[in-house]
Specification:
This protein has three domains: about 100 residues, OB fold (Dihydrolipoamide Acetyltransferase, E2P); about 100 residues, E3-binding domain (Dihydrolipoamide Transferase, Irregular); about 200 residues, Chloramphenicol acetyltransferase-like domain (Chloramphenicol Acetyltransferase). Helices cover about 25% and strands about 20% of the residues. The protein has ten helices and 21 strands. The strands form five sheets. Strands 11, 14, 17, 18, 19, 20 and 21 form a seven-stranded mixed β-sheet that branches. It has a five-stranded antiparallel β-sheet with strand order 3-6-8-1-10, with no helix packed on it. A five-stranded mixed β-sheet has the order 7-2-4-5-9. Helix 8 crosses helix 9 and helix 8 crosses helix 10. The chain is globular, with a radius of gyration of 26 Å. It binds oxidized coenzyme A. Oxidized coenzyme A binds next to helix 8, strand 15, helix 9 and strand 18.
């Protein structure tokens, strides 16, 4: 009789309702022990749930978007033999007997910011299995099984051993995982290994020509970063970067280096908009209506008119994925650094609803209460420095988006009406765009249209 057992979500560090972001197997798949079944992403990390035994997947119980906690059934697996991997032991099986059954998470630090800004580190929870009550007693629940990884058995030959999240991270950086040495058990490549590889290339320790990666072999043949003892020149103090600083910094550096940015500057005459905004503010004391909410609405209108701005390049850079939804990322300055929460379905929300939500996400960001889900799925970002000052700047595109709008402080300026100078309130707009996807003419049209909508909000009704 077939011995069908449940594979369950193991101890995931006390997290609950963790979203499934990837389903790695389907019914009928023959799987090896420890092969990833699904990937979960908490606000701290991305985790693969490995198969607790080898066999054939009879039914997958989860789908992307489900939220799970420890003990949730992932799949029904018909166990092959004793459930152990039939392949002979290979060098990759390096766990020693003292290794506790619940594989400790990798030493990767926890993640606190957006996946769009953060490539999540990985952990490898131990397999967990619970026998179906009717299953024969001969199938012991291998919940105490060691999390031995057999890279050669899990992955096809020649494929570097890394979790999907690490693969995505490496792909985004243009790193060939075949060139990266894995430091984890079984030679598994962690996100830190990829980062160390990139650092080594950038620092000159590995020559770009031998480093692999598409972007790297393309010739960022930089001289090493200057090593300076600043204290030789005067008093200094060392202040550690926050975790958000580091994560945002790494992502900004990658995006700046890998995306050919061009910034189109324009301005919108918001004299009438400002009068309306003030009126709204007087009528609705319970919510702060700033120019940003009008910008969100105007951006949505422009994205609808110019769909290539509401898009991302696919992983192979061969197709443009056009999005039919309108989720707008808002750069928020917090004491710990920059984060980009996302306002979902901005096209379906009115100005006041957007104002409420903007207030909520800004407060949440500053109170460090944003979860991963709050920062996922953005289509286009807005970075507003309008409350602070400035006349223009170059915002850095939040990959994999293809454009970002920077907004500076509006100012009263004399504008020639044809017969005289009249005072008008002008709002500076700075649109950075990915020149691989968007031409200069399209960017000029996009910003001009934005300015037109902001100048006459009735256009939002069209
Ligand atoms: N021109 C003139 N005044 C503006 C303005 C503009 N473009 N934008 C906002 N203001 C005004 C607001 O009306 C408000 O005035 P009152 O207090 O008199 O009503 C004041 O500036 C402060 O606004 P705010 O910053 O609190 O609100 P917001 O909706 O404009 O922005 C948020 C919210 C979260 C985006 C903002 O607080 C923030 O964090 N901005 C920084 C983003 C950032 O760091 N970007 C850089 C990324 S690259 O490093």
């Amino acid at each position: 009789m077939a011995d069908i057992q449940q594979a369950r979500v193991p101890d995931i560090g006390g997290h609950s309702n963790v979203p499934v972001i990837e389903v790695l197997v389907k019914a009928g798949d023959t799987i090896k022990k420890d092969q990833g079944l699904v990937t979960l992403e908490s606000d701290k990390a991305t985790m693969e749930v490995p198969a607790p035994f080898a066999g054939v997947v009879r039914e997958v119980k989860l789908k992307v978007g489900d939220e799970v906690s420890e003990g949730a059934v992932v799949a029904m697996i018909e166990v092959a033999g004793d459930g152990a991997d039939a392949s002979p032991p290979v060098e990759a099986k390096i766990s020693d007997e003292k290794t506790p059954p619940a594989a400790a998470p990798s030493s990767a630090p926890n993640k606190t910011a957006a996946p769009e800004l953060v490539a999540a580190p990985t952990t490898s929870p131990a397999p967990a299995a619970v026998s179906v009550p009717s299953a024969p007693a001969t199938a012991p629940p291998p919940s105490s099984a060691r999390a031995d990884f057999d890279a050669d058995a899990v992955l096809p030959e020649q494929v570097p051993y890394a979790s999907p999240a690490v693969r995505v991270f490496a792909r985004e950086l243009g790193v060939d995982l075949g060139q990266v040495k894995g430091s984890e058990r079984g030679g598994r490549i962690s996100k830190q290994d990829v980062q160390a590889h990139v650092k080594a290339v950038m620092g000159g320790a590995i020559s770009p020509s031998t480093a692999g990666g598409a972007a790297l072999s393309g010739g960022l043949n930089l001289i090493p970063w200057p090593q300076v003892d600043f204290s030789k020149f005067g008093a200094v103090e060392s202040k550690p970067l926050t975790r958000i600083n580091k994560i945002a910094g790494a992502n900004l550096a990658r995006n700046w280096a890998m995306i050919p940015h061009v910034t189109q500057h324009d301005h919108a005459d918001i004299t009438e908009m400002e009068a309306f905004r003030k009126k709204l503010g007087e009528e609705h004391k319970d919510v702060k209506v700033t120019p940003l909410v009008f910008l969100i609405k105007a951006v949505v209108a422009a994205l609808k008119k110019y769909p290539s701005f509401n898009a991302s390049l696919d992983a192979a850079n061969e197709n443009l994925i056009l999005k039919k939804y309108f989720h707008i990322g808002i750069a928020v300055d917090t004491p710990d650094g920059l984060v980009v929460p996302v306002i979902r379905d901005a096209d379906r929300k009115g100005l006041l609803e957007l104002a409420h939500e903007l207030g909520e996400i800004s407060a949440k960001a500053r109170d460090k209460k944003l979860g991963a889900a709050d920062m996922q799925g953005g289509c286009f970002s807005i970075s507003s420095l309008g409350g602070i000052g400035g006349t223009a700047f170059t915002p850095i595109i939040n990959a994999p988006e293809v454009a970002i709008l920077g907004v500076s402080k509006s100012q009263w300026q004399p504008v020639w009406s044809g017969s005289e100078f009249v005072p008008r309130l002008l709002l500076p707009l700075s649109l950075s765009y990915d020149h691989r996807v968007i031409d200069g003419a399209a960017a000029a049209r996009f910003t001009a249209y934005l300015a037109q909508v902001l100048g006459d909000l009735r256009r939002l009704l069209l």
